[in-house]
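This section describes the prediction task in plain terms. A model, or a person checking by hand, is given the sequence of a single protein chain and must write out its three-dimensional structure as a string of C-alpha cells. No templates, partner chains or ligands are provided. The sample shown here is typical of the held-out split.
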Amino acid sequence: MAPPKDDNSEESVKLFLSIGLDEKTAKTTINNPKVTANLTAVINEAGVSNGCDRTIGNLLYTVATKYHNAPVHRPTLFNYIVTAQIKTPAQLDAAFSFFGNNNPEDFNLNEFEEACGVGVEVSAEDIENVVEKVFEENKKTILEQRYRTNAGLLLGHVRKSLPWADPKIVKDFIDKKMYELLGEKTAADHEKPAKKKEKKEKPAKAEEKKAVVEATPEPSEEELNMNPYSIFPQPEQNLMVHTEVFYSDGSVLRCNNNREVLDKHLKVTGGKVYTRFPPEPNGYLHIGHAKAMFVDFGLAKERGGCCYLRYDDTNPEAEKKEYINHIEEIVNWMGWAPFKITYTSDYFQELYDLAVELIRRGHAYVDHQNADEITKYREKKMNSPWRDRPIEESLRLFEEMRRGMIEEGKATLRMKQDMQNDNCNMYDLIAYRIKFTPHPHAGDKWCIYPTYDFAHCTVDSLENITHSLCTLEFETRRASYYWLLHSLDLYMPYVWEYSRLNITNTVMSKRKLNYIVTNKHVDGWDDPRLLTLAGLRRRGVTPTAINAFVRGMGITRSDGSMIHVSRLEHHIREELNKTAPRTMVVLNPLKVVITNLESDKVMELDAKRWPDAQNDDPSAFYKVPFSRVVYIDQSDFRMKDSKDYYGLAPGKSVLLRYGFPIKCTNVVFADDNETIREIHAEYDPEKKTKPKGVLHWVAESSTGKEPIKVEVRLFEKLFNSENPAELNDAWLTDINPNSKVVVSDAYAVPILKDAVVGDRFQFERLGYFAVDKDSEPGKLVFNRTVTLRDSYGKGGK
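The expected answer:
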C-alpha cells in the first residue's frame, strides 16, 4: 500500500512536474526520500525551481539519481546544462567521467568542453547517414535475425562515429530504417525463439560436419612461447568505460570507476592483479575448466598477483561436499595454488545488506509473480504489477522473506532494471529467492539465497578483483553486471570474455555429464572416456599436457568452432613420449614354441626403457626373459603371407624386439581345425637373418610359468558424432557402444609387476597406458591413454 500523502509530497510532485518529468516518474520519485532530497537540491542549485525545458529536466534528474557524489564543480556543470551546452546523456556521462578522472584543482575549462563535446552539433542528416552505413555493414545479420536483432549493438556502432548524437533521435532513425528494410512484423517475429532444433530434421553429411571442426594448424613454437596474457590491461588503467547500457528510453549508462574509487581499490590491493576461479560445486570439473584455470590463475601468476578459488555456492540444492573436495584437489593437481579459498556464502550477510541498500535506492522490489508469470511478462516486455510498490513495503517484505515468513515460491526480490530493453538480461533479473534448504557451507542460517546475477559481480567487487574473466556466453550479462555495481556505487572490475573450449566427440554440459553419470551410461565422474579432469587423470593424461593444449588454443574471443580431439591427443603424446618408459604387453596372446631352444633355458635380454638409451647407462635398460615359450599377439600371425604384411606367417621370419629372429616352421590347430592353438618356430641365435618385421612379445620366465597376467582397458571416443549436441534430444543415441573394450587376460613382461596406480608406460606398438585405481595385488589394470598414431596435422585438426 502507498504511504499517505502530505503537503510536502504534493509540493515535490508539483516541482518535479515543472521540470518536465512525467507524472508517473514524479510520483515514484517521492517514494524514495533520498532521491527526492537529491532532486530538490539539484533543481534549486541549477536555478530552475520555476520550471525548465523537459530535456534539461531529464538531465538534472539523471544527476540526482545516478550520480550521488556531488563534484566540486557542480555549479559549472549546472550552468552548462541549463544553457543547453550539455544537452545529451552522452555529454553528461562524459562530464562526470572527466570530473572523476581529474583532480578538482587541475580543472581546465577547455579540456572539459572538449571531453564533453560542447559546441559539437550533430544534425539529423549526420545521424541518418551513419545509420545507413551501419545498416549496410550489418545487413546480412539484420535480415537473418529480423526484429530479434540487438538494437543496442546498432546504437553502439552509431555512437562510435557520433558520440554526441542524441540517442533518442538515433533510436528513431534505427527503428525507421528497420521498418524500411523488414516491413511489418510477421507472426514469426512474435514467436519465442526456438532452441536450435532446426538441425535435427536433416543430419549433416560427413563432409559438412567436418567443416564445423576448426582446421587449426599445429601451433608454432613462436606462438606457444608468446605471452597470452599481454592483452589484459594493468590494474591502474581501470578508468575506462567498461560498457554502455542502452536504456529503452534512449538514455545510455556508461559504467566506469572514478579516480577516487580506483585509488581506494589500488590501496587495498597494492596495485597487484587479483583474479578468481569461481566454479559452482555442482559436479566435477572438465577440460573447459582447465582453460578457465589457465586464464585466471595464469594471469595472476604471470603478473605476480593473486587468484582466489571461490566456490559459487548460491544454490544449496545442487551442491555437495564431494564436489567441493574434488575441485580443490583437482586445482592443485593441475598445478595451481590459490591465494585464498573463499565461498560466495562467506559474504551472505554483506550481500543481504547490499540488497537492502538496493531497495532503499529504488532499484529493487519484492515481486509475487511465479516463474511462469515472470516468463510471460518478460516475453511481452511488460512490467510486473508489483514493480512500483513503495520502497518501505519492499523493505518490510524482504525482511519477512529473510525471516522465513513467506512461503517458498511466493516472493522474489527483483532488480528494477529495464523491462523494455533490447537485452533480455536487463529484464528485472531476480536477485533473491526463497529456499528452505540448509546450505552445505553456511548451514541453516539463511532461507533466502542470492542468484548468480546478484552475487557474482558484487563478490567480485568485495574481493577487489581486478580482472573478472569468463566465457563468451556471459557477454550479454555484462550490462546487468555493471548496472548493479553502478547502482550500488561499488568498485567495478575489468570484465573480459573469451571463447569457451568445445572439443569433438564429447559433451561438456554439466547437466548432460550429470545425466550420463547418474544414469550409469559411464562409470562415474572419473570414467576415462569423459573429458572431466578426473577422467583424464585416471586415463593417464598429465596436467602438463592439458595446460600445453590449453595454452596452444590461446585466449581469444573467436567462438563457435570445435577443436578436434586429435589436437588434445597430440599434446598428450608429446608429453608421454618424453616421460613414459617403454615396455611390452601382449593383448591377445598366441603361444609360440621355440623348438630349437632347450626347454629349461632362459636368457636375460636387455630391453630399452627409452628409444635413445645410451649403452653405458644401465638405468636406461630393463631385463626381459627369453625362453622356449614366448607369446606374440594373435593379430601378428597369418596363415597366408602377402607383400605388404610384416607379421609372422608359415615359412616366414620376423625379429622379436630386443631378441632374436624367429621363423615359423609349423602351425598346431585345435580340434576344430580352424583355431590356432600354438605356433612352432626356430630362432636364429647368430642373428644372421635380417627380417623386415619387428614384433613385441612376452616370454615365460621359467619353464611352465605363465607370464604376468594383466587387464587392459581400451577406450575410444564416447560419442560417434563430432558434435553430439547438434542431435538435441537424441544425443544419448549417439553414445558409442564400443567406447570401452576390456581385455582381461593380457600378458606383460615381469618388470610391470611393481607398477603402482598412476604409473604411465608406452606399451611398444600399442600406445600409452596408465595403471588404474581398480588394480589389486596380483591383477594390475591398465587404461589406454592414447594410441601411438598421431592424426594431428594429417587431416585430423
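For orientation: Confidence is low (pLDDT under 50) at residues 1-5, 195-225, 791-797.
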